[in-house]
What we know:
By secondary structure, the protein is mainly α. The protein has helices at 97-125, 129-133, 137-145, 147-164, 171-208, 213-247, 252-281, 289-299, 301-310, 312-320, 322-342, 351-378, 397-401, 406-416, 418-431, 441-471, 476-505; strands at 10-13, 16-19. The chain is built from 17 helices and two strands.
Amino acid sequence: MSSKPEQKETHQANGAVLPIVPVDCLTSPDRGELVEPSDFLGPDSDGVEVVVLESRANAKGVREEDALLENGSQSNESDDTSTDRGPEPASPLKETSFSIGLQVLFPFLLAGFGTVAAGMVLDIVQHWDVFKYVTEVFILVPALLGLKGNLEMTLASRLSTAANIGQMDTPKELWRMIIGNMALIQVQATVVGFLASIAAVIFGWIPDGHFSIDHAVLLCASSVATAFIASLVLGMIMIGVIIGSRKMGINPDNVATPIAASLGDLITLALLSGISWGLYKELESKAYVNPLVCAFFIALLPIWIIIAKKNAATREVLYSGWEPVIIAMAISSVGGLILDRTVSDPNFAGMAVFTPVINGVGGNLVAVQASRISTYLHMSGMPGESSETAPRKCPSPCSTFFSSDVNSRSARVLFLLVVPGHLVFLYTISSMRGGHTTLTLIFIVFYMTAALLQVLILLYIADWMVHWMWGRDLDPDNFSIPYLTALGDLIGTGLLALSFHVLWLIGDRDSDVGD
């Protein structure tokens, strides 16, 4: 029996109850130095177990205790007060399936209707002269619509994590995050827009062997201007959404990324169509306008680079965040090539209106999941650390979808939203007579199969990719979402084209093509 009185005060950290020893008890009264742990033990090594709690900074530089979400929808699960159990992994997101679904549902539907509107716009503008005679513009569509995954969704995930762990609580911190991140996405948007136009020129030239310098400059000017303006508008919307979510007690991870996509597709596609149409009109009479527009936005690059470099929150991303956005742009461009080859084929009638919908819904859902997993990991430590919350590099499908942890629960909720969501969106398209096609039962079955398979693959890849990047000392907020949304574009476009092809082979599309 130890002569030391038993410590009655307890403190709960990361779900485990640990005894607290005041700091002054750890110092020798005559020396003012720290007492060795052995001094607390009796002669028989039977003493009170002492645990010294440190305020270790987590990945975002704040106290781990302050990282817990103050979410009104958290379940009122009772805390385990038993001291017999060892420390458990942090569970910062104590949300029920109902609360997750409730928070995600409205932004998901809003984002879905945004993709429906984008599909209706694409269904109309595909008949414009600029899309008929400069068909490479179709290759730009998935790449530029994918900017919401490359830039805006990454921005939303980054700011959501910062808000959840307390890095945007003071006005000074808030403005620092806003200015740095806005400058950063303008740099990324300009560069990615320029590279997307080059990819469109190359992918358009390879099959036909035809190259036009005027069309190449038109693609460059349209792409850069669209990317710049769309990122500016959507970035400001994202900041407002995240600040408002925190004030309303809503987890920004559940709403920010879908809302980024709700207006993202529509705004980007409308800008691309309008800008490319206007520049195409000036191509013959004022050929100098296109290179001037391209040069103007590229000349602004040094200003945004200087601003982003001065901000510690964005300096690292400015140097290291290029690989995912560039590779994601290339992946999306492959999906654009598929769209370019199918949209003008009468056997694929309706492909234009459904492509933004299936790609947008899949990208929105997987972005929510990736953002949630990233926030969950950030609350347990820093990227690269060995943590019990990031135990697996290649998870099994059962652990991804059927385990009891909060991320598996959210994966099930997001997957279950696919069918009812797409049914609503298909009905909306049919009511607006979009796509020049009639919805038959067999078409809906093939379409739903493609949509479910796309989301199933994306959610599994997200579970593997976020944990894999975390173990490799890469911040998933900056690296995972661009890859996932780009893969969503490629998988969605490919599966949709395959579905249309099979439907044409069995004759279902023959009687459905409208005027």
